[in-house]
Design a protein that fits this description.
Length: 419
């Protein structure tokens, strides 16, 4: 395949969403892989399979050079394949004249302080917050608002270094842990963002957009529990019916957030708390949802954010004709995360056969296999796996999700040398 051959091609920057790659390939699209840094950032970036791409371009910092390298393939779209690819994808799309979100608000689509301020400026509900490089300033701000606050890096993902702090001593300790350390993308954290704690159920809204028209692809509710010293660790995700009073309110708010951040094209993953006063943004990523959740929706309901993202780029006229259509299917899905109680060498998992006998059992995904080191689960990245449930009856899913949590209590894990 030479650069000059004629075919439909797209650029994916930091292509770490394997299902998205395969979805484009299934549509007959060729993919140019762009790496946003010489040392590729982020977990899951090791030893990529380059055979799936017609080109591999490593960005060394010069936009002109990178744009020239991919221009010969005549790509019709530039897609952010992960959080780290968002800003370069914006810049390349703008440079190449592809449909994109522009660079004016690129920083706000990555920086968690700037994104909330953009939402506030648009007149939407937004959390009180501050960004600081001073532990003293953070403590003073915490004192001024009182109660629990959340302290986290300005730029990261996957629940990396998110601390729930009930006192100034805890918020200062969180600052000391974050400031000057490296995030999961190996980028130094300079300062922190601190936000008021938002009480209420957390939801995830996955979307795909074309020309500022937004498809609400799926809505998930998140269950969080106190475990392993973490006040609110994500325990499970539950796919909700497409319509309903809560879903409709979340959809309207999400569309406002997308507009506020200039997300007119492509996928987005929005996390929201439903407070007593209505929906409030936690954060948003201008890229696909992770944890394979869109893939599970695709299996359960026939289409998901994966399909709508590919359609937005490859078949915009169809997207714009159908993005408001509601395809209500009865089959729902729950994903219950495994929560390891300790670190050590994993000898095995107990009661796996009992999990497989559950009425709604679909699959168990194990990120850590017996014989491998396992880490105490305190973030998304230390989750050793998940149980996937699918069923038409929401009550059955909830019952089985509760049973999964009971069956996967701490003695489910046979760990040598626990610590």
């Amino acid at each position: 395949m030479s650069v000059g051959d004629t075919m439909t091609s797209v650029v994916i920057v930091d292509a770490r969403r394997q299902r998205l790659i395969e979805e484009f390939r299934k549509a007959g699209t060729k993919i140019i892989r762009v790496q946003s840094a010489v040392d590729e950032p982020g977990p899951g970036s090791e030893n990529p399979d380059l055979s799936r791409f017609i080109g591999n371009v490593v960005h060394s910092g010069d936009l002109e050079t990178t744009a020239a390298a991919v221009a010969g393939y005549s790509p019709i779209a530039v897609v952010a394949g992960s959080e780290t690819g968002v800003e370069l994808a914006d810049a390349l799309a703008e440079k190449l004249g592809c449909a994109g979100n522009g660079t004016l608000l690129s920083a706000a689509r990555r920086d968690k302080y700037l994104m909330v301020e953009a939402v506030r400026r648009a007149g939407l509900a937004a959390a009180r917050q501050t960004a600081t490089v001073s532990a003293t300033e953070l403590a003073d701000w915490h004192d001024s608002i009182g109660g629990r606050i959340v302290v986290k890096p300005l730029r990261s993902s996957a629940g990396d270094s998110v601390f729930f702090c009930d006192s100034t001593a805890e918020s200062v300790a969180a600052f000391d842990r974050i400031h000057g350390s490296k995030n999961i993308f190996a980028v130094p954290n300079i300062g922190v963002v601190a936000q008021e704690y938002l009480a209420g159920t957390e939801y995830m809204v996955n979307t795909a957009s074309r020309d500022g028209c937004h498809r609400i692809c799926e809505v998930w509710s998140t269950t969080r529990i106190p475990v392993n010293g973490v006040p609110e660790l994500a325990d499970s995700y539950h796919l909700m019916p497409r319509t309903g009073a809560v879903q409709d309110e979340l959809a309207a708010y999400t569309e406002g957030v997308l507009d506020a951040l200039g997300i007119r094209h492509g996928p987005a993953h929005t996390e929201i708390r439903m407070t007593d006063n209505g929906p409030v943004l936690v954060e948003i990523g201008a890229r696909m949802c992770g944890d394979n959740l869109p893939y599970y929706v695709q299996l359960a309901q026939g289409e998901s954010q994966l399909d709508w993202t590919v359609r937005a780029y490859l078949d915009p006229s169809r997207f714009l004709r159908t993005y408001r259509d509601i395809r209500q299917t009865p089959r729902l899905c729950s994903v219950v995360r495994l929560i390891a109680p300790a670190s050590g060498l994993l000898r095995g998992y107990r009661r796996l056969p009992a999990l497989r006998r559950l009425t709604s059992f679909y699959d168990v995904q194990l990120a850590v296999r017996p014989g491998s080191p396992i880490r105490r689960t305190v973030t998304n990245l230390t989750c050793p796996g998940a149980v996937i449930l699918m069923h038409d009856d929401e009550a059955v899913l909830r019952r089985d999700a509760n049973t999964v949590r009971r069956l996967t209590s701490p003695d489910f894990y046979d760990i040598d040398g626990e610590r």
